[in-house]
Every structure is written in structure tokens, then in C-alpha cells.
Amino acid sequence: MNKQLHTEYELEVVAREESADGVVALDLQRPDGAPLPDWTAGAHIDLVLDEDVVRQYSLVELGNNETCWRIGVLNVHDGRGGSRRIHESLTIGTIVRARGPRNHFALEPAQKYIFIAGGIGITPITGMIVEAERRGVPWTLAYGGRSRSSMAFADCLEGQFGDRVDIVPEDERGFIDFKTLLEKPDQNTLIYCCGPEPLLNAVERASEEWPAGAMHFERFVPFETGDAKPNEAFEVEFAVSGVVLEVPADKSILQVADEAGIDVLSSCAEGTCGTCETYIVSGEVEHRDSVLSAEEKAANKSMMICVSRAACPRLVLEL
Ligand code: FES
């Protein structure tokens, strides 16, 4: 595992700006101004509000620099309280703990990109646009939101990149026309999409004719397992720790590892953040996370042990 993912930083809020209705942009840097670890487009960090409240935020790339991480935080009124706490308590000068960066939404090489964002899903896309520019690869962005005033960074993106950016406020123009946007499948184009579940589902429906591997999604919510079989008990061998334990039907591998005192980092416990990713030594897995792509799941190299389970009697993990 990459040690950087486990390293925790104390960061100071050095700038705070209301970048849209309900969205605050925060600039975080080390109190001594030292550089922060490099990150790549699509990466996110964990904000550790306390031991039980850890939230993931994509890094925003618009005018920041190597000593500063910028995040955009939507105040989710019906959420679990993390974003509200950030809005209420993280002011300039506040010190906050952070881990990462981690990237499960990396920008692969392509001859063209189509970026699609809904609401606060614009945050990881900002870095992708800057990276596509750096690579000299043509791109377009379709960015939807309830209203223009709720769409963070919309003016900045439009001002900087002109008509390659299509801002689609629902109250002015309705929904993004995905059927037209994605009507011609192209094997040289990759599509990166981040936003609320209905938008991702609409993109999935409109892109059924596209080649496997063209679509890349970042989800905020747990993967819909649909007709998943009822849980069954299985054995897990923790190869590094040298123990074999049973994972009962009512517990996750993560819970069993925690109870056995095996050191494993976790955060969301619902398969959305990627923190508990663990390498598979052998065995088949029923993947239930929303982090890995369909190709990564098929490759069976790693799994999210907070939600995914064995599809065989014994799994061997690099833990
Ligand atoms: S703890 Fe977030 S994916 Fe497992």
C-alpha cells in the first residue's frame, strides 16, 4: 500500500469563499507553507473531522499551487452532518486533519475527452480539464446544475475555456441532452462523469453503444447491488498477519479485521471512498463497491473490504 495514503497532515484553512449557493471553496495548506504531496487529476483527500467523521473531497485545480489544496464542499442538508460541520466550523485559520491524496478516478490517455459534471461533481473534473489542456488533448465539458447560482466554478470555467464549456442550468435550459451528446460512439474518446446518481444513470443509459472501457464514473453513493445473493460466511486468510478468520454473514471483512486487531485504514464503510482497498492474493470476489470500474473488478486485483465479499470458500488478502 502507498504509505502516502496513510500519512495525516495538519492543514490550515488559508482561504474560504462561497463559490456557489451552498458551496464553499476552501484552500488548505501546511501552517509552515511547505509543499504538499503531488496529486493527479481526479484525486481526492480525506478530511478527518474526528475519528468517526471522515469525509472525502476531490481536489480542485483552478489557480491553486503546490503548497495548497483546494476543495469544494456542498452543504448537504439531508446528509450525515459532515458537510454542515465544515460549513459551520472551518473558517480561515482553522486547523484540520487530512489524509491522501488518493485517486480512483484517474485520467487515462485518449485522443479526446468528454467531461460531464452535475452539481458538486464538477470538482474532480476541474483537474481533468487542466490536465487535458496540458496534454494538448481536445475536450468538451457539459456541466449541469439546478440553477447557475448553484453551480460552483461555472463562471470561472466559462471565462477561461469559452465554448468548450457548456453550462446547463436546469431552470434555464432543462437537463443536459445526453442522447445528442453521446449519440456517436467513438473508440478514441473517453468519457469522465461525476455527479448525482440520476445524472450518472442517465449517462449510462445514453452510452450503451459506447465501447467497454470508454465510460468512467465517480459515484458519491453506495453501488446498487440489485439482486445480490444473501450474505454467506466464508474464510479469509490475512497473508501478512498470518491469521485465518471466519467472516460471518452479518459482518464485513473490515469488521472482522478490526476485531482481530489487524491494522487497516477505513473511512466511509460503504464502498464509496476507496480507503480500505486491499490487494487480493487469491480467491474470487463479489465486488459491491462503487469505486472500482467494471474492468478493475474483472481484473480481481484488489477489493474494498468494507462491503465486498468472497465468492469462494476462502479469500487470501494482502493484510
Ligand atoms: S472504507 Fe470507504 S471504500 Fe471501504
TrEMBL record:
Residues 234-319 form the 2Fe-2S ferredoxin-type domain. Residues 6-108 form the FAD-binding FR-type domain. Gene3D superfamilies: 3.10.20.30, Nucleotide-binding domain of ferredoxin-NADP reductase (FNR) module, Translation factors. It comes from the Bacteria. CDD domains: fer2, PDR_like. The keyword Metal-binding applies. Keywords: 2Fe-2S, Flavoprotein, Iron, Iron-sulfur, Metal-binding, Oxidoreductase. This is Oxidoreductase. The lineage of its organism: Bacteria, Pseudomonadati, Pseudomonadota, Gammaproteobacteria, Enterobacterales.
